[in-house]
Amino acid sequence: MDVFVSGVGITPFGKHIEHSLKELLLQAARDALRDAGHPKIDAVFVGNFMGGAIANQEILGAMLVNDLELGHIPSLKVEGACASGGIAIRQAVIGILSGTYENVLVVGGEKMKHAATDVVTQAINAAMDNDSSEKNAGLTFPGFFGLLANRYMYESGATKEHLANVVLQNRSYAINNPLAQFRKPTTMEEVMQAKQITEPLGLFDCSPITDGAASVVLSRNPSAVKIRASVQVSGPTNIQDLDSILQIPAIINSGKLAYEQAGLGPSDIDVVEVHDCFSITELLAIEGLGFSNRLEGWRFIEEGQAGINGKTPINTSGGLLSRGHPIGATGTAQFVQIVLQLRGEAVNQVKNARIAMSQNLGGTGAYSVVHVLERV
Amino acid sequence: MDVFVSGVGITPFGKHIEHSLKELLLQAARDALRDAGHPKIDAVFVGNFMGGAIANQEILGAMLVNDLELGHIPSLKVEGACASGGIAIRQAVIGILSGTYENVLVVGGEKMKHAATDVVTQAINAAMDNDSSEKNAGLTFPGFFGLLANRYMYESGATKEHLANVVLQNRSYAINNPLAQFRKPTTMEEVMQAKQITEPLGLFDCSPITDGAASVVLSRNPSAVKIRASVQVSGPTNIQDLDSILQIPAIINSGKLAYEQAGLGPSDIDVVEVHDCFSITELLAIEGLGFSNRLEGWRFIEEGQAGINGKTPINTSGGLLSRGHPIGATGTAQFVQIVLQLRGEAVNQVKNARIAMSQNLGGTGAYSVVHVLERV
Lengths: 376, 376
Known about the structure:
Helix content of chain A is 37%, strand content 18%. Chain A contains 14 helices and eleven strands.
């Protein structure tokens, strides 16, 4: 049985102090339902990470069912750190494959901007294992990815300017995206001179704190976009034990399984959204998903291969770095962007895109979700 | 396709200050895996409510996959307030029905006792809609169920002593359960004279704050216990708008659907675990699931019909009131108890139990999950 994407919706990403988490989710959901032509919805899956910790708001599924007047259908929230949105989509796919549902509404969202930065940082740290030596050594997420960036520069010969190229590439896309958090052009000088967060990552190398939501409707009935692969893997939560900290097993394994399920390879992918929570993470995803050789992701970016006319346009939405990273929304927002690419309706539209991929990472490699979609 | 229960595991319920949330989940999971004979597990679903809010711990799925060395299989956390555990089980059932998995490990757990009571109370309030007038009127969960209890006494003629009968009934079961939080015999006098939490509910009418975890392994391969029905519904999150606040739609609808799916009625159920977060909630469940007429649940208890030799033994584990209520664990713990009943291995074993039911409520009726199991 095939699963199709019948509708997508998304809010502007940025600061929504005046809206509750529920209101953000509702806005994206109503968009997606309208786009899908208001089919009878059989279940609601919500992707969200820190609603309980910083917004004192759970039961997001039931609230949506109520406010959207969907009857008494099943609903729930799915948590998988920054991969919550992608995992929620995959659960919906499985629900349809099981024959239990015909149409499922998936909504990912997060409200973060109202909270103090240290509160948000602490909440994000829940995506590391409290019992692990890494967390107990005092690592935060920027610290963790900073370590990887240092090692990457050491092994590959890349410089901080090469990391900055990722930022500039994604910003060049976000400039055209009216829903992106950062739409102002920037320069190598500005990126290099920005406040250091953790050596070698500056402010622009780190995805921002963002409010926003994105939604998709999946259906058994055929429509223009079909799901070719929907895979999720778990990965090590203590990454220091790996042979190489630059080969995150979750990214690599999710890519492998997705190519296998889709019967495709990296060269078949016309456009992709990868999880660039930090500039370094995008390079590791480019390599882990096979778009470039190992330790050559920085060259791929430098040569313009991720650009709109490159081999594989990457993060045409602006990515987490410039579109923004409302944690639970990210996986669904990536999915929305590749659906729009396949429908020919995207910002930074890639010509004749027929196969698209999204990759959504959780924690320090605890989860990775990959979807491959096809225009039919 | 049928789904079977191949293993169950559970920790003692109570205070586990020395163990992390992960360790509690691992303990229950290892029990269940051993009980199931260590099949190859294809996915892990975790039911948990407030790990992020009060234990700063999410990514529970990936941590279990890692520590149990299950490879890089998919895993995730499911949240549906106090129904998180039940919903996690249902997601596992759907995963098997879809053909995606053969064996799924489900673990529900919560760690609450380390936190101050006001912190826990605030975290529990995330199970109400922040935008609703009920929450904004200052209602807490005891306040909410206290309102229902007052209305119940007004409409039914039941007294506080009849509510206390629920407490005494469940305690009489818990006395025999070595894993229960409260195993000391109690008396009508003690229950009636206990500190008032919210009129008319005293301390004993309210389920306690508890640490604990429970786990089940579901499989496609036949074993002694089969799932006859697995249903979840969402319900109103603003209950004051209902025609009758004593008929919680989620309970009633989940019961109806479960009987329909199982092709059975209330009189076919040999033993049941219902969601007694408060004494009044057990009465509403007895009535909502059709074990007694409306407004006569208190008579059902008074007449001993929920006793071990009664018409329908209810909460033979001791229930949430006496076994304890580690929120995310509750749905899985109820399920464990009915599986043990069908295997003839339960505390307070019901003779020749062949069909059993569990019912797990979330929020103020935001969710209800019902499972019906059969000994085959």
